[in-house]
TrEMBL record:
InterPro entries: DSBA-like_thioredoxin_dom, DsbA/DsbL, Thiol_disulfide_DsbA, Thioredoxin-like_sf, Thioredoxin_CS, Thioredoxin_domain
Domain Thioredoxin: 10-154
Location(s) in or outside the cell: Periplasm
N-terminal signal peptide: 1-21
Stated family: Belongs to the thioredoxin family. DsbA subfamily.
Annotated segments matching region Disordered: 206-268
Originating organism: Cardiobacterium valvarum F0432
UniProt keywords, alphabetically: Disulfide bond, Periplasm, Redox-active center, Signal
Assigned GO CC terms: periplasmic space
GO molecular function annotation: disulfide oxidoreductase activity
Protein name per its UniProtKB record: Thiol:disulfide interchange protein DsbA
Keyword Signal: yes
Biased composition (Basic and acidic residues): 220-234, 241-268
């Protein structure tokens, strides 16, 4: 009897701990939930929306890459999607052309970011000619670039990117969607941001694991889990910009018209 009581107490403590973990980040304050998921709800999926011309995305990039290298939970499926809205199409197309050409994506993302924000080559995310020249300078063949630029595969990915960004209800970048439904805007507190991504992306898996008895549980101990619900049940226990000083101002999804160079040509 004493043994059963101890097991029941341990189960109650574990459930209470799980409830506290779930309250670590609160809906409405730390994230919002979409009424209609942008993709089929897939546990462990994290989508990052960004734009090469976004200063906040550029500032976050080193920390994001570090998290991807040694901080991201191993179960997370990370997907990067360029925000495609207004005159951001050039940057989005450049993103997919790089991948269509089979170039080193991570290396090219870094080069593009640096070229735009440090090298004075902002035109590569707006102008087709400037973008193609940049790709050739970085090892691609002119004919391959031209073929990839107008390929059906790239256009289909652009269409999907546009639809996903619109469905995300984000009004700027950088931004994240977890499990196809949890919307998280970036902030300056990168450790907290990435912990939030890890926590939300793995919380469904955590619930499943909590429900499983351990291998060491004997038949007698398993029966003890069938205690009354009252014994195991834990105790129940859109801020403004001023209220969230750590929050970063995301890049507006509709940049000012003067940001677009005069030599901009429409994408082919």
């Amino acid at each position: 009897m004493l043994k059963k009581s101890i097991v029941a107490m341990l189960l109650a403590a574990a459930l209470a701990g799980g409830a506290q973990a779930q309250l670590k980040y609160v809906e409405g304050a730390d994230y919002t939930t979409l009424t209609a998921p942008v993709t089929e709800a897939k546990a462990g999926q994290v989508i990052n929306f960004f734009w090469y011309g976004c200063g906040h995305c550029y500032a976050m990039e080193p920390s994001l890459q570090k998290w991807l290298g040694d901080g991201k939970d191993a179960s997370i499926d990370f997907i990067r999607i360029p925000a495609f809205t207004g005159n951001w199409e050039g940057g989005a197309r450049l993103f997919y052309v790089v991948r269509e050409l089979g170039m080193n994506a991570a290396e090219m993302d870094e080069k593009i970011f640096n070229a735009v924000h440090k090298g004075g080559k902002r035109g590569i995310i707006f102008d087709k000619g400037a973008a193609m020249k940049f790709l050739v300078e970085n090892g691609a063949k002119q004919e391959d670039v031209e073929k990839a630029w107008k390929s059906l595969a790239v256009q289909q990915k652009l269409n999907q990117a546009r639809d996903l960004f619109n469905a995300s209800q984000l009004d700027g970048v950088p931004g994240f969607i977890v499990d196809g439904k949890y919307v998280i805007a970036a902030d300056n507190n990168y450790p907290r941001l990435f912990d939030k991504l890890n926590t939300l992306a793995t919380k469904n898996a955590a619930k499943t694991e909590e429900a499983k008895p351990t291998d060491a549980t004997s038949t007698e101990e398993a029966k003890a889990a069938e205690v009354k619900t009252e014994e195991a049940k834990p105790v129940d226990a859109t801020p403004t910009e001023e209220a969230k000083p750590a929050e970063v101002k995301t890049e507006e999804a509709k940049p000012a018209a003067e940001e677009k160079p005069a030599e901009i040509k429409p994408a082919a």
